[in-house]
């Protein structure tokens, strides 16, 4: 294993250091008598990029659902920036991006990105508009000039970029991503990986990203969270000590391949 050394420095301008983005203490999730997640201890540093790997059914999606207040903890505590998951949800501290972009088919790219703001206004909740407008967010994800395109006029990768822009519109401090590029071809996925890293650096948001791809986990993550199955438990958090500025060529380096090899071996024992 490569020396797991210091964590790569956090972004300047990101959320304040000190308060963890997410803290799970002895957190378990049960579905009836089945334990999906067992006594998880995890602390996510604000501003960092975490990827999650683990065998099918080990609880990766369940972990995101737990953090995002979609399911309750059976034991223990979960806090997001010092708040309960419910408080954090109401304060829009986090946003979710799924494998399927789930855009409204009759609304343009811009109108889809504007949707969370509209819903907030209709409910009378006081959502601070982000420092970036929906138009600027579409530019950030590389879709300037495609504001009026309808979902069926866009490629899968473009639709997923709209979904990311929509997730960023309320300025979440934590972005939860459940295999967002899993359905895309390899070249598109690699390109979106680079774009996502740019977005992460620019926004300073904390990212928790589920993937089945070892190389994607290494390319994106400052730390890889490895879960094991039956029951879902934390196996290891692996520091990825690679240059902060990640370029496509990084995938060809021996350091990158060694991390992939280490994680592949670890995964086989999970
Ligand atoms: N609503 C539910 N009711 C009962 N069991 C559930 C429910 N949701 C998830 N599970 C179970 O919890 C376990 C973890 O599921 P989860 O979807 O989190 O795994 P995962 O690691 O994301 O899987 P994959 O990699 O295949 O997407 C699985 O055994 C699954 O069958």
What are the main properties of this structure?
alpha/beta; globular; 270 residues; disordered N terminus; binds adenosine-5'-triphosphate; 6-stranded mixed beta sheet; single chain; Rossmann fold; 4-stranded antiparallel beta sheet
Summarize the structure.
This protein is α/β, with parallel strands linked by helices and 270 residues long.
Structure description:
With 270 residues, the protein is an alpha/beta fold. It folds into two domains: 48-81 and 189-270, Rossmann fold (3-Layer(aba) Sandwich), CATH 3.40.50; 94-171, no CATH class. The protein contains eight helices and ten strands. It has helices at residues 60-67, 85-90, 109-122, 134-140, 156-168, 186-203, 214-220, 254-268, and strands at 22-31, 34-44, 49-53, 75-80, 83-84, 94-97, 174-178, 206-210, 223-228, 233-239. The longest helix has 18 residues, at 186-203. The relative contact order is 0.20. It holds the Pfam family ABC_tran. Keywords: ATP-binding, Nucleotide-binding, Transport.
Succession of helices and strands: EEEHEEHEHHHEHEHEEH
Number of separate domains: 2
Structural class: alpha/beta
Amino- and carboxy-terminal Cα gap: 17 Å
- CATH architecture of the largest domain, by name, is 3-Layer(aba) Sandwich
- The total count of strands amounts to 10
For the biggest sheet, the summary is: 6 strands, mixed
Query: Which shape, going by the Cα principal axes?
Result: globular
The pLDDT mean sits at 88
Strand content: 15-25%
Uncertain ranges: 1-15
Bound molecules: adenosine-5'-triphosphate
Determine the number of helices (DSSP H or I, runs of at least 4 residues). 8
**CATH homologous superfamily placement of the largest domain:** P-loop containing nucleotide triphosphate hydrolases
CATH class category of the largest domain? Alpha Beta
Name the helicity range.
25-40%
CATH topology of the largest domain: Rossmann fold
**Widest β-sheet, arrangement of strands:** 6-7-8-3-9-10
Q: What is the rounded Rg? A: 18 Å
